[in-house]
C-alpha cells in the first residue's frame, strides 16, 4: 500500500521543474492530504497530468534545486516502478488524470533512468495504457535507455538548465553540459531522424559552431534494426532553461534556443524565470523578473514560428538583453523605417508588421481586391492600432486610426 504522504510529496517536489504552460491544482485525497496535479498543454490539447518523481533522493548538487544533496529539505521518498504504475493507473481509471509526466532525482544515472523505464513499461504493457506519457531523460542515461524511453513515451525531455558548460558548472558541478546534456539531446535527435545506427560518439560530436550541430548525419528515412521509426516520428523532444540564474545574457539564451531548434530537432524550449528556494544554496540570490521569461517566449515565437532570421532577431536586443518591450515592435522599427504598402506586399513582409499574424498575412497577401481603408485591413485580420505606424494603405501613411476614412 502506497502512502498518501509519499504520493503527495513526490508530486509536489516535481514542481521544481514546472513548464510555463503548466498550472498546479490540488485535489483532495483523504483526510488532510491533497494531491498536486498539473494542468498542461500537450500536442493533443489541455489535459491534467500526474507529474511526479520516482524519488526525490538526489546525489547531485544543483544549487537551485530543492531535491539536491545540498538542500536542507532531505526527507526522502521513493516509488518502486510497480508502485508508481499502480498509483498512476488508479488515478487514470478514476478519470482524475489524462497523462503522466515522470521524472526522477538521480541516485545513480543509469539505475534511476532504468526505474523510470520500468514504470513506463508496466504502464504501457501490463496496464495497457495508451494515453500521453512524458518521460524525463536523466543526464548520464545510456543511448539504449533513451531509445527505449522513446518507444514508450509521446514526449521526452532533458533540461538544459543553463547556456554553457561554464554557466552550468557554476550552479550544478556534477552535470557536464556537453556530455550529459547536449550529447543526449543529439542521440534523441538521431533516433527521431531514424539514424540511430550512426549516432554520434566521443568528443568529435561536441558543437563548436552552429555548423557543427549536425552530429548524427545519416538519412532521415533510414530505419535501423530495432528502431520503430514510424512510431518515433510522433515523439516530441523538449527542454527547459532557467532565466537569470547565473548572469547569462538573453542573447546567450536566445542563441542556444535557436541552435536547439535548428540542429537538435527540438519541438519546444521552455523558459523558467529563476526563483530562489529557501533551504538551497541560492536562497539569497535575486529572482529573475517574470517579464524577462515572457519576452524570451516572444523572441522564441518569432524565430520558431515566424521564421525570423538570427540577424533580424539582433534588432530586438539592447546590449545582449531584451528590453521589456514587444520584440516584434523593436524589430519592425528597424525593418520598416519606411512604411510598407500593404497592397502588393508579400506574406513574409506582412508577417513582420506588428498586429499582423501568420493567418492575416496570408489573407492580406492573397486578397484580390484593393485595400483602401483601415477597416478593410482589420476585416482581413490585422490589429489596426498595432499595424498603423508601420504601413501605408493605398499610398497613405497615417499614425492614428481616426485619420483613415
Ligand atoms: S539532478 Fe539536479 S535538478 Fe535534478 S533533481 Fe537532482 S538536484 Fe534537482
Label this structure with key terms.
405 residues; alpha/beta; TIM Barrel; DNA polymerase, domain 1; 8-stranded mixed sheet; two-stranded parallel ribbon; 15 helices; elongated; binds iron/sulfur cluster
Secondary structure: elements and pairs:
Elements: H1 4-13, E1 23-30, E2 33-42, E3 45-53, H2 81-93, E4 99-103, H3 109-126, E5 132-136, H4 143-152, E6 155-157, H5 165-171, H6 177-192, H7 229-232, E7 236-243, H8 250-263, E8 268-273, H9 290-304, H10 310-314, H11 327-335, E9 340-341, H12 347-350, H13 358-365, H14 374-379, H15 384-387, E10 391-392
Parallel strand pairs: 3-4, 4-5, 5-6, 6-7, 7-8, 9-10
Antiparallel strand pairs: 1-2, 2-3
What would you note in describing this structure?
- By secondary structure, the chain is an alpha/beta fold.
- It folds into two domains: 4-308, Aldolase class I (TIM Barrel); 336-403, DNA polymerase, domain 1.
- The protein is built from 15 helices and ten strands.
- It has helices at 4-13, 81-93, 109-126, 143-152, 165-171, 177-192, 229-232, 250-263, 290-304, 310-314, 327-335, 347-350, 358-365, 374-379, 384-387, and strands spanning 23-30, 33-42, 45-53, 99-103, 132-136, 155-157, 236-243, 268-273, 340-341, 391-392.
- Strands 1-2-3-4-5-6-7-8 form an eight-stranded mixed beta sheet.
- Helix 2 (81-93) packs across helix 3 and helix 4 crosses helix 6.
- The longest helix is centred in the first third of the chain and has 18 residues, at 109-126.
- The chain starts with a helix and ends in a 13-residue tail after the last strand.
- Residues 195-233 have low confidence and may be disordered.
- Residues 58, 60, 62, 65, 67-68, 105-106, 172 line the site of iron/sulfur cluster.
Amino acid at each position: 500500500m502506497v502512502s498518501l504522504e509519499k504520493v503527495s510529496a513526490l508530486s509536489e517536489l516535481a514542481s521544481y521543474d514546472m513548464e510555463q504552460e503548466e498550472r498546479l491544482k490540488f485535489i483532495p485525497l483523504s483526510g488532510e492530504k491533497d494531491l498536486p496535479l498539473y494542468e498542461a498543454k500537450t500536442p493533443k490539447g489541455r489535459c491534467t497530468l500526474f507529474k511526479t518523481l520516482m524519488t526525490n533522493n538526489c546525489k547531485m548538487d544543483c544549487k537551485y534545486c530543492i531535491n539536491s544533496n545540498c538542500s536542507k529539505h532531505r526527507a526522502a521518498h521513493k516509488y518502486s516502478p510497480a508502485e508508481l504504475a499502480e498509483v498512476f493507473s488508479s488515478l487514470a481509471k478514476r478519470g482524475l488524470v489524462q497523462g503522466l509526466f515522470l521524472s526522477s532525482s538521480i541516485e545513480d544515472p543509469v539505475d534511476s533512468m532504468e526505474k523510470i523505464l520500468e514504470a513506463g513499461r508496466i504502464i504501457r504493457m501490463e496496464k495497457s495504457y495508451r494515453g500521453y506519457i512524458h518521460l524525463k531523460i536523466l543526464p548520464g542515461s545510456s543511448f539504449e535507455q533513451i531509445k527505449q524511453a522513446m518507444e514508450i513515451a509521446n514526449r521526452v525531455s532533458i533540461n538544459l538548465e543553463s547556456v554553457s558548460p561554464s554557466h552550468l558548472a557554476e550552479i550544478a558541478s556534477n552535470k557536464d553540459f556537453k556530455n550529459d546534456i547536449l550529447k543526449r539531446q543529439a542521440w534523441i535527435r538521431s533516433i527521431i531522424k531514424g539514424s540511430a545506427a550512426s549516432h554520434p560518439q566521443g568528443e568529435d560530436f561536441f558543437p563548436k559552431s552552429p555548423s557543427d550541430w549536425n552530429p548524427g548525419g545519416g538519412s532521415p528515412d533510414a530505419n535501423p534494426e530495432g528502431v520503430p521509426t514510424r512510431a518515433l516520428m510522433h515523439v516530441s523532444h523538449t527542454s527547459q532553461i532557467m532565466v537569470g540564474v547565473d548572469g547569462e545574457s538573453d542573447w546567450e539564451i536566445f542563441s542556444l534556443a535557436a541552435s536547439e531548434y535548428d540542429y537538435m530537432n527540438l519541438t519546444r524550449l521552455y523558459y523558467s524565470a529563476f526563483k530562489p528556494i529557501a533551504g538551497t544554496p541560492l536562497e539569497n540570490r535575486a529572482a529573475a523578473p517574470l517579464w524577462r521569461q515572457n519576452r524570451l517566449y516572444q523572441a522564441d515565437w518569432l524565430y520558431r514560428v515566424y521564421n525570423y532570421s538570427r540577424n533580424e532577431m539582433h534588432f530586438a536586443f539592447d546590449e545582449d538583453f531584451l528590453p521589456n518591450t514587444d520584440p516584434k515592435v523593436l524589430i519592425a522599427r528597424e525593418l520598416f523605417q519606411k512604411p510598407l504598402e500593404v497592397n502588393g506586399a508579400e506574406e513574409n513582409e506582412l508577417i513582420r508588421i506588428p498586429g499582423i499574424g501568420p493567418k492575416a498575412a496570408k489573407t492580406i497577401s492573397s486578397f484580390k481586391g484593393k485595400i483602401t481603408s483601415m477597416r478593410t485591413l482589420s476585416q482581413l485580420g490585422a490589429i489596426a492600432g498595432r499595424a498603423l505606424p508601420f504601413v501605408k494603405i493605398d499610398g497613405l501613411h497615417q499614425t492614428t486610426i481616426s485619420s483613415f476614412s
